[in-house]
Amino acid sequence: MTETTKDRPWLFRTYAGHSTAEASNALYRANLAKGQTGLSVAFDLPTQTGYDSDHELARGEVGKVGVPIDHLGDMRTLFDRIPLEQMNTSMTINAPAPWLLSLYIAVAEEQGADVSKLQGTVQNDLIKEYLSRGTYICPPKPSLRMITDVAAYTREHLPKWNPMNVCSYHLQEAGATPEQELSYALATATAVLDDLRGKVAPEDFPGMVGRISFFVNAGIRFVTEMCKMRAFVELWDEICQERYGVEDPKYRRFRYGVQVNSLGLTEQQPENNVYRILIEMLAVTLSKSARARAVQLPAWNEALGLPRPFDQQWSIRMQQILAYETDLLEYEDLFEGNPAVAARVEKLKHDARAELAQIDAMGGAVAAIEHMKSRLVESNSDRIGGVETGATVVVGVNAWTEGEPSPLTSGEDAIMVVDASVEADQIARLAAWRETRDGAAVEAALAALRDAAATGRNIMPPSIEAARAGATTGEWGDVMRAVFGQYRGPTGVSKNPSNRTEGLDEIRAEVDALAARLGRRPKFLVGKPGLDGHSNGAEQIAARARDCGMDISYEGIRLTPSEIVAAARAEGVDIVGLSILSGSHIPLMESLMRLMKEEDLTHIPVVVGGIIPEEDARRLRAMGVAKVYTPKDFELNRIMFDVVGLISPEQVAAE
């Protein structure tokens, strides 16, 4: 077969952004020069949750997990010398998706681009934020309305733009089984399309169905993941035809991008992650009928910290070798007619249809959020339990743990570290922006935005005007919070113990003995300070502590250090456990430990979990943190024994 008859490869992307817009722009241009064919923008947590960099909740979070974008000037710098009319840009942004798209449009206009030619995606999937990621702002119903506002606007003005990217990626990271990943993602898509039906003309609706895209996770169970993707393709075609009457096959295509599973990357023997990433990529590329449209691969060392440009280059090269050196793209689907594959696909479809029917019976995805969240917490407990017992083998973690030290992880520059001065510099630029803009124009634009939000008009046009006028991300977010209210999603962790008692006898006996000495059940406060919404670990710690016999207090994500300290005092807790996965553990813990001292609560031990380098762990212990846990500490029962041991005899005697 000649070279000219090969299929075109998928888009090569790397999920990237950090520190500042200027530094991220340099990274994007370098990656494009190395052969990357699309951009995938990672925003920092304040941007993702609609806060400016100088907001109280943003402290310690600026530039950590992505790039801070406070206003049009930041967006202008981010895409400097990158012609947006020629680019395909994926923006991983959800609650503020209308705002970031507005900034993108405004920059494209400044570049002289034909806006109707812009290509890319805003993720814009709020339901999975309530279930698994936590960067929501408003309650579900107005959030759904904003998703479809974006969709309706792009239909008219940005016909090549994907207005929503249904994201099942984080569902799998939160514990979803393949059947749950299929059904929860498809239920989200139907919730959006059902709402969108009333916002576009009937003749335009099939085309809008065709613009919905998906973003999925490919895990290590290669055969199941490949079959899951084939099931997605077939179920989506079925839903589009039967539920929405879409006749044109091109509008029923399941169009998806993928990032392979970052959760499965291990801190132990991290060089093994290279093989995991490759195998997971094969699941979404080998089957032509279910091949991804875009692939972004994590770096091998992401369980250790922020990857370097070399680490990202390695991931790009992996894609290029598969696409250009192998003969994969010369063949039709390799699995067509395989009876084992066909049987697995049919089983996945059958089970997913049953889940979808249950969600529909509850009133759809929005009404079923609490149900889906609790199911994910249960599934994640099963997954973690399998690793703990060894029923699920993870090489280097619970099997073949002895190995040679990796030279790849040694030295001062083994991972990137965001300079501590970045936050102050960003705040200074934000202050200068506010000083030099036309304040009256900003106020008028925000008033128009507030009116559109309150009256039900599409919020995209006034959002674009606010972007042009110089409004900030926090100001846009404040308007949404004022009109629609803030929201605290369900935690999925009931205070009532589950029936999971297998393997807990020894730790339950220890907790009972401690309770006898205390004269009551030990009280464990689990908290997530800052803006990090990755709550899976906190949920599992809270659930295991509950099942071991402790009284737990867990109110979910996005708490300030002062709120956590106030809760510790008010509830008379015996221990505080904090989860911080955004890299902001040092500034957040400095604040919290200072407040604990000011409130005379230093007798209450504090433990912290996160992606925390050993040098930082030493700093935390020097602050008074009793224990530091990282991803290598996967045995929850061992953590529970630590918790019991940390509630000191002196504390018991004092009570």
Short synopsis of the structure:
This protein has 655 residues and is α/β, with parallel strands linked by helices. It is 49% helix and 9% strand.
Primary descriptors:
five-stranded parallel β-sheet; 655 residues; alpha/beta; single chain; 9% strand; 15 strands
* Residue windows where pLDDT falls under 50 for at least 5 positions: none
- The best one-word shape is globular
SS class: alpha/beta
β-strand percent reads 5-15%
Radius of gyration: 25 Å
* DSSP helix fraction: 40-55%
Q: Number of helix segments? A: 25
Major sheet characteristics: 5 strands, parallel
What strand line-up does the widest sheet have? 1-10-9-8-7
| Structure summary, number of beta strands | 15
Average residue pLDDT: 92
How many angstroms separate the termini? 80 Å
Can you lay out the helices and strands and say which pair or pack?
Layout: E1 11-13, E2 15-16, H1 21-33, E3 39-42, H2 45-48, H3 72-78, E4 88-92, H4 97-110, E5 119-122, H5 127-133, H6 140-157, E6 161-162, E7 165-167, H7 169-173, H8 178-196, H9 205-209, E8 213-218, H10 222-242, E9 256-260, H11 273-283, E10 294-296, H12 309-325, H13 339-361, H14 369-389, H15 421-436, H16 439-455, H17 460-469, H18 473-484, H19 505-518, E11 523-527, H20 536-547, E12 551-554, H21 561-571, E13 575-579, H22 585-598, E14 606-609, H23 614-623, E15 627-629, H24 636-646, H25 649-654
Parallel strand pairs: 1-10, 2-3, 3-4, 4-5, 5-6, 7-8, 8-9, 9-10, 11-12, 11-13, 13-14, 14-15
Helix pairs in contact: 1-3, 4-17, 5-14, 6-8, 8-10, 8-13, 10-11, 10-13, 16-17, 16-18, 19-24, 21-22, 22-23
